[in-house]
Amino acid sequence: MGTVVSFSLREDSSTTTEPGEMQARRERIDQGVERAQARLQWVDDVFSTWKQDSPVSRLRRGEIGLDETPPEVADVLELCRRAREASEGWFDPWAMPGGVDPTGLVKGWAVERALDELKMAGAPAAMINAGGDIAVFGEPAPGQPWRVGIENPLAMDRLLLTADLEGAGAVATSGSYQRGMHLVDPHNGRPTAELLLATVIGHDLAYADALATGLYTSGGKMLERLALLAGYHGFVMDGRGNIHASRGFPIVLRGVEAVSA
User: Fold this and answer.
1) Number of domains in the chain
2) By residue range, what is the domain housing residue 78?
3) How far apart (Å, rounded) are the C-alpha atoms in residues 237 and 219?
4) CATH code of the domain covering residue 147
5) In the predicted model, what is the mean pLDDT of residues 119-126?
């Protein structure tokens, strides 16, 4: 998926177990990590728009129909349709050059599927970071939430904010300050450059990933819409370094004043 994916897991030390039990648990979790990695690789093989022989690439070229792709492709495209509706068209995989491109949602979707493998393996808590898009479950230490930092694009050695994710949650960021202008306005097909970044915090990374893309391509116009979506919040930083947040944004921004949309 064109990025580095990292795993952070916590070992459960809350109960006393025999050495044999602990070793068996570690082996199950190790196997879960292997399955999670395999799941991510499979998603890349199926959905990559860079691999010419992937089912999605072939679908985009019209070589095969949707019914000839793995069933997960139809599932992801249905999620894309819902995200397009929720974003009022600012996230629109069908408006991308070259044909439908679910990249803006599928990375988050893949990470959620990988997290499921870790849960089923018995991991008590885990974080997966896919190029700055993050999903978590459990607690990294008893009574403590996962703390996720968003870097300041105007001062890369500083954090713009930290977000505490309790129980389960996700953070997705879209922007041009690291990868350049790679996102386009779905209404005119032109690269979007009004913002430095757009971040969405919510309970599902697939949806947060898509909404962050839409928030960025809208130039921040989608903030009012985002405030109406239960369980999701977001903010943007414009080219002058000004911050604008959706109504009810629950996170304290460091050293900057956010203006609610």
Assistant:
1) 1
2) 5-260
3) 9
4) 3.10.520.10
5) 95
Surface-to-core class of residue 92, CB atoms within 10 Å of its CB (0-12 exposed, 13-18 middle, 19+ buried): buried
Strand (E) or helix (H) holding 84: helix 71-86
For 93-129, give one letter per residue: b (16+ CB within 10 A) or e. Answer: bebbeeebbbbbbbbbbbbbbbbebbbebebbbbbbb
C-beta separation of 172 from 108 below 8 A: yes
Which of 100, 107, 105, 90 lies closest to 184 in space, CA to CA?
90
Structure tokens at 44: 């890349």
Alpha carbon separation from 88 to 110, 126, 260 (Å, rounded)? 24, 33, 20
Of residues 121, 127, 173, 181, the one with CA closest to residue 151: 173
pTM greater than 0.90: no
- Report CA dihedral (45, 47, 50, 51) to the nearest 10 degrees: 30
Q: pLDDT (tens digit, 9 = 90+) per residue, 2-34?
A: 889 999 998 775 555 677 888 888 999 999 999
